[in-house]
């Protein structure tokens, strides 16, 4: 089979390898669609994420779907928690310290033609959902988990700071709760601002964090909830500036630096509550239901499709951020 392995910074190579063999409790899955995530781009462009670096040639890709060897269409939950530690037993498998996670450097992901994956981590797809829809359930799940952490109330004033795929999905989720929506992204990415506007958000071009005051003024007393999805300190500063006293700020984006910073005086005087999103909890059934019922449109977020043989062009398109979600179809 063909598989793409990352050997180091910007060093992605196609290999011919043996098809994997399913172990106990595993099922062979023919991969049909893989979404490229911001974390994949960090690995590719920087050779790692934060202090974690590439130590071996590994397979990226954790947003994927496929068809099992016996013909079942499935979305793949990329996280394989241990189910035995305190975090797992306490209902937080996303915080499991012994988790195996697709494409995280230590464990191979889905950017190949076949994977062997635990049956318990396969989510059946209805016929109404495409293969790309199935791959998009993972980023939608990230958005659902982030909104859960935000303690979103019906009709709240919600700001999303960064309108990539996850930011746009969060806007859709918040809209279901009747939220008044605000969104930011760079002026150099007008297509993202337009996508947010099409979802009903009041949009503001990011200005190194200075847009926070403009959003606060437009929202009246300030935002009730801010979700930062850009992975940039300037976006965190804008979120802190834009919210009202007593608000919640959820940090979802993955920064390039090992530290995230914000103006402590502002956050302290406002008495803000911060939450950091780590992947997702038990949200796949909800994500699937929202898409199947047409309440969240994941297809509108997919802008590019490439075959596996054009993996370099796919990463180039994703890195340039000229569109939204890039999907590879092995």
Describe this structure in words.
This protein is of the alpha/beta class and 330 residues long. Helices cover 30% and strands 29% of the residues. It has ten helices and 19 strands. Strands 3, 6, 7, 10, 11, 18 and 19 form a seven-stranded mixed β-sheet that branches. A six-stranded parallel β-sheet has the order 14-13-12-15-16-17, with helices on both faces. α3 (131-150) crosses α4 and α6 packs parallel to α7. The longest helix has 20 residues, at 131-150. The radius of gyration is 19 Å and the shape is globular. The protein starts with a strand and ends with a strand. 48% of the residues are buried. The model has no long low-confidence stretch (mean pLDDT 94).
Key structural traits:
seven-stranded mixed sheet, globular, 30% helix, alpha/beta, 330 residues, single chain, 10 helices, six-stranded parallel sheet
């Amino acid at each position: 089979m063909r598989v793409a392995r990352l050997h180091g910074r910007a060093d992605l190579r196609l290999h011919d390898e043996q098809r994997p063999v399913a172990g106990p409790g595993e099922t062979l899955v023919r991969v049909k669609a893989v979404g490229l995530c911001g974390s994949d781009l960090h690995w590719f462009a920087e050779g790692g994420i934060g202090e974690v670096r590439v130590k071996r040639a590994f397979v990226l890709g954790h947003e994927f779907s496929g068809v099992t060897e016996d013909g079942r269409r499935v979305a793949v939950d990329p996280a394989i928690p241990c189910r035995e530690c305190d975090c797992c037993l306490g209902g937080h498998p996303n915080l499991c310290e012994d988790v195996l996670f697709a494409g995280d450097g230590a464990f191979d992901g889905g950017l190949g033609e076949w994977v062997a994956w635990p049956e318990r981590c396969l989510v059946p797809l209805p016929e109404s959902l495409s293969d790309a829809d199935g791959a998009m359930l993972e980023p939608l799940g990230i958005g659902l988990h982030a909104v859960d952490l935000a303690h979103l109330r019906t009709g709240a004033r919600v700001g999303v700071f960064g309108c990539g795929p996850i930011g746009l999905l969060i806007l859709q989720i918040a809209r279901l709760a009747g939220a008044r929506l605000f969104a930011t992204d760079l002026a150099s990415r007008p297509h993202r601002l337009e996508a947010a506007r099409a979802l009903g958000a009041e949009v503001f071009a990011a200005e190194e964090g200075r847009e926070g005051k403009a959003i606060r003024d437009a929202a009246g007393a300030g935002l009730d909830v801010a979700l930062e999805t850009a992975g940039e300190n300037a976006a965190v500063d804008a979120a802190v500036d834009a919210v009202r006293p007593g608000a919640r700020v959820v940090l979802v984006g993955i920064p390039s630096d090992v530290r995230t910073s914000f103006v402590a005086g502002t956050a302290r005087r406002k008495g803000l509550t911060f939450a950091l999103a780590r992947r997702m909890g038990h949200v796949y059934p909800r994500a699937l239901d929202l898409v199947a019922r047409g309440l969240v449109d994941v297809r509108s977020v997919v802008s590019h499709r490439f075959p596996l043989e054009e993996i370099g062009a796919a990463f180039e398109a994703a890195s340039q951020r000229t569109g939204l979600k890039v999907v590879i179809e092995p």
